[in-house]
C-alpha cells in the first residue's frame, strides 16, 4: 500500500509498504514512519494519506483512508502549512483561520448536505529535520467529495451553457443563504471551491477564509488579506468590512467565468472600472441584469441576500407554464439534474458500453447456448449500464475498468469464449461498440432535428 508523507519538506514523500496490503496488518499495526524523513505516517493512529490532492494558500490537501471504518472510508486530510515567509502575527492569523475552518465546518457541515462534514481536527508535534528541533502540524479531516470542481469541469468541457450556469447559481445560493444566516461570510467563492459530486450535487468547499460576521468589528482592517484575485470585490481587496453581498459578487464573477470560459482579467474593464462581459455570452437579458447587479462596485447596490437573488432568478426564469406541462429546468431541484454530457463523453460511454455488451453476449452464449437469451440478458445489462451513466452513478472510466475485467475473465476462461478465437472475440466486441456509437449519434441527431422543429 502506498502512504504519502505529509511533511512538506520531505524529499521522498511516496512510501510503499507491502505488509499494509494485508487488511489484518493494516487494521492492527501501531504506526509506520516515512522511510525518507521519519515522519509518522498514520495520523493519530487512524488516517492514512494516500496522495496529494493539491496545495492551497494555507496548506496542502491529501486524499486519505480512515482505517477505523469498515470500508476504509475515503476522506480529505488538510494540513496547515503556510507558503512563503510570514511574520509571527501573520502566522498566528493564518493558524486562527485554519482553526476557524474546522470550527465552521463542524457547525455548518453537520447541518447542510452541500458542505463537507468535519471528521477530526488535531495537531501533531514531531521531531524536526533540524537536529534538536520540533515541528508542529495542524490537521483537519473532512468528508471527501468524489467529483470534480467547476474549474476542472471548465478546463475539460469548455464554457457552460446559460442553463448550466443558472443551475449552479440555484444550487449554491441556498448554501450561501445558509452560511450567511449562521453569521459567516465565505469570502473565497470561485470555481475551484465549488465541487460537483459524481451524483450531480454541488458542494461549497474551502471555509479557510471564512469570516464570522460577529468578529468583523474586532478584526484589524486588512489584517488577513485572504481572497482570490479577480473574484473579490473592492471592499474585500481594500481590507474593509465584508458582507453577504461580498460573496454574491464573487459568485457572479464565478458565473461569468463559467459562462464565457475567460479569465477574470479579460472580463474586467480597468479603464472604466466595470465588468465588460455581455458581448462574450449569450444569456437572457433578465439573468444578465441580475448578474450585473450582483457585480455592482458598491456593496449596497447589490442584492442584500442570497435569497433575494434566488427570488429574482425564479422570476426571470419561470414563465407561467400551462397546467399540464412538466416543470421547467429552473424549477426542478438541482440534484435531480446531473451535469449535461459533452458529445465526446456521450459517444465514449456508448462505445465502451457497447463493447462491454458484446463481451457479455459472447460469455453468456457460451453458458446458455441460446443466442436469444444471451442477447436479451446482455441487452438488459447494457441498458442498466446506460442508465447508470446517465444518472452519473458510473462514468466512462468505470466502464473502462469493467471492460478490462470482463476481457480478462473471458481471455483466461476458454469456456466463456463460445469457441471463438481471441481475434474474433475482440472483433465482435468492437463491432458492438461501433454499433452503439453509431446508434447513439443517430439518436442524438434525430433528437436535435426534432428539437429544432418543435
Ligand atoms: N472535501 C474535499 N473533497 C474532495 N476534494 C477536495 C476537498 N477539499 C479540497 N479538495 C481538493 O483539494 C485540492 C486542494 O484544495 P485546497 O482547499 O487545499 O486548496 P485550493 O482550493 O486549491 O486553493 P486555495 O486554498 O488557495 O483556495 C483542490 O483541488 C480541491 O478541489
TrEMBL record:
Reactions performed catalytically: L-seryl-[protein] + ATP = O-phospho-L-seryl-[protein] + ADP + H(+); L-threonyl-[protein] + ATP = O-phospho-L-threonyl-[protein] + ADP + H(+)
Superkingdom to which the source organism belongs: Bacteria
EC number: 2.7.11.1
Sequence intervals crossing the membrane: 343-365, 371-388, 400-419, 425-447
Record keywords, A-Z: ATP-binding, Kinase, Membrane, Nucleotide-binding, Serine/threonine-protein kinase, Transferase, Transmembrane, Transmembrane helix
Record: residues binding ATP: 78
GO MF annotation terms: ATP binding; protein serine/threonine kinase activity
Residue intervals of the Protein kinase domain: 47-335
Enzyme class label: transferase
InterPro entries membership: Kinase-like_dom_sf, Prot_kinase_dom, Protein_kinase_ATP_BS
Pfam families noted in UniProt: Pkinase
Keyword flag Aminoacyl-tRNA synthetase: no
Record-given protein name: non-specific serine/threonine protein kinase
Species of provenance: Chroogloeocystis siderophila 5.2 s.c.1
Amino acid at each position: 500500500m502506498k502512504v504519502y508523507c505529509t511533511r512538506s519538506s520531505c524529499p521522498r514523500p511516496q512510501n510503499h509498504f507491502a505488509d499494509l496490503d494485508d487488511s489484518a496488518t493494516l487494521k492492527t499495526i501501531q504506526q509506520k514512519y516515512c522511510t525518507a524523513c521519519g515522519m509518522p505516517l498514520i495520523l493519530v493512529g487512524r488516517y492514512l494519506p494516500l496522495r496529494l490532492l493539491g496545495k492551497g494558500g494555507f496548506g496542502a490537501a491529501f486524499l486519505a483512508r480512515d482505517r477505523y471504518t469498515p470500508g476504509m472510508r475515503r476522506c480529505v486530510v488538510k494540513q496547515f502549512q503556510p507558503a512563503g515567509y510570514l511574520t509571527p502575527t501573520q502566522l498566528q492569523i493564518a493558524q486562527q483561520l485554519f482553526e476557524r475552518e474546522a470550527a465552521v465546518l463542524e457547525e455548518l457541515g453537520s447541518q447542510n448536505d452541500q458542505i463537507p462534514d468535519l471528521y477530526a481536527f488535531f495537531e501533531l508535534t514531531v521531531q524536526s529535520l533540524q537536529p534538536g528541533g520540533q515541528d508542529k502540524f495542524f490537521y483537519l479531516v473532512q468528508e471527501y467529495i468524489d467529483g470534480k470542481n467547476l474549474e476542472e469541469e471548465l478546463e475539460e468541457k469548455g464554457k457552460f451553457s446559460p442553463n448550466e450556469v443558472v443551475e449552479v447559481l440555484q444550487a449554491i445560493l441556498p448554501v450561501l443563504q445558509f452560511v450567511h444566516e449562521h453569521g459567516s461570510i465565505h469570502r473565497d467563492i470561485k470555481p475551484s471551491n465549488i465541487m460537483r459530486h459524481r451524483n450531480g450535487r454541488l458542494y461549497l468547499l474551502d471555509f479557510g477564509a471564512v469570516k464570522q460576521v460577529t468578529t468583523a468589528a474586532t478584526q484589524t482592517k486588512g489584517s488577513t488579506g485572504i481572497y482570490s484575485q479577480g473574484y473579490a470585490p473592492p471592499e474585500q481587496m481594500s481590507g474593509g468590512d465584508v458582507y453577504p453581498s461580498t460573496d454574491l459578487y464573487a459568485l457572479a464573477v464565478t458565473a461569468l467565468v463559467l459562462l464565457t470560459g475567460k479569465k477574470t482579467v479579460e472580463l474586467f474593464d480597468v479603464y472604466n472600472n466595470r465588468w465588460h462581459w455581455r458581448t462574450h455570452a449569450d444569456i437572457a437579458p433578465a439573468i444578465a441584469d441580475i448578474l450585473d447587479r450582483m457585480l455592482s462596485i458598491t456593496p449596497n447596490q447589490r442584492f442584500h441576500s442570497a435569497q433575494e437573488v434566488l427570488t429574482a432568478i425564479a422570476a426571470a426564469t419561470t414563465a407561467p407554464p400551462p397546467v399540464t406541462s412538466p416543470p421547467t429546468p429552473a424549477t426542478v431541484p438541482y440534484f435531480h439534474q446531473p451535469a449535461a454530457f459533452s458529445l465526446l463523453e456521450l459517444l465514449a460511454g456508448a462505445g465502451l458500453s457497447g463493447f462491454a455488451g458484446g463481451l457479455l453476449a459472447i460469455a453468456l452464449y457460451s453458458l446458455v447456448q441460446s443466442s436469444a437469451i444471451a442477447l436479451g440478458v446482455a441487452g438488459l445489462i447494457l441498458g442498466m449500464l446506460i442508465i447508470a451513466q446517465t444518472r452519473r452513478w458510473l462514468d466512462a472510466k468505470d466502464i473502462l475498468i469493467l471492460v478490462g475485467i470482463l476481457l480478462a475473465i473471458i481471455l483466461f476462461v476458454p469456456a466463456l469464449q463460445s469457441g471463438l478465437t481471441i481475434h474474433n472475440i475482440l472483433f465482435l466486441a468492437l463491432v458492438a461498440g461501433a454499433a452503439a456509437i453509431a446508434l447513439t449519434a443517430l439518436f442524438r441527431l434525430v433528437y436535435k432535428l426534432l428539437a429544432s422543429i418543435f
